[in-house]
Amino acid sequence: MENDDDAARLMRLPLLRRATVVGFLDSIDVLVRSGGLVAAEQLVLLEDDPAEGRRLGREALAWYLTLPNYTDNLRWLGFSDEDLAGGGSAALVDALVAWGDENAIRGRVLEHLEAGADHVCIQPIGRSSDSIGIEQLRRLGPALLDL
Predict the structure, then answer these.
(1) How far apart are CA 42 and CA 34, in angstroms?
(2) CA angle 94, 76, 38 (to 5 degrees)
């Protein structure tokens, strides 16, 4: 980092605490030093039931948890091998996936913005009836457009 202020800004970002940009720390460092855009990505799921939200979250995270670069960074961020086992602990899934109603997801997006992100890209977790999450985006739009 060029200075301690840049490092502090990055560590305040929920995207780092929640490990949603694992593998991209060098790119973010370059962007911040050059005054560039800090953009977070947030997995989202409109689901009020914790068990179902975590089940679908685990499905979405399964591929990432097979990749050493992701799991190494998750460990670096403080998650244990136990958190990474069995599709991910509840704490891991809750950290990486914003699930709940529109207000809950808005709150998670706001966390990123309030911590210094310039932009938050939401990635809906699809379901069989809406495999790429278009309906979720339609529902979330009104809750997020004014941010």
Answers:
(1) 24
(2) 70
H-helix or E-strand containing 89? none
- Report residue 123: phi and psi, to 5°: -120, 105
Strand order in the sheet with 119-124: 97-100, 39-46, 119-124
Q: How many Cα atoms occupy the beta-carbon half-sphere of 10 within 13 Å? A: 24
Tell me the pLDDT tens digit for each residue of 5-64: 655 555 555 544 444 443 344 445 555 556 667 788 899 999 999 999 999 999 999 999
Prediction pTM value: 0.77
Looking up tokens 């409109």 gives 46
Q: How many CB atoms lie within 10 A of CB 48?
A: 10
- Assess contact for 113 and 13: CB atoms under 8 A: no
For tokens 């941010």, the residue is 147
Q: Which residues pair with 45 in a beta bridge?
A: 99
End-to-end distance of the chain based on CA atoms, in angstroms?
A: 28
Give the CA radius of gyration of the chain. Answer: 15
Q: Give residue limits of the domains in the chain.
A: 4-144
| 3 state DSSP class of 18 | coil
Between CA 133 and CA 39 the distance in angstroms is 20
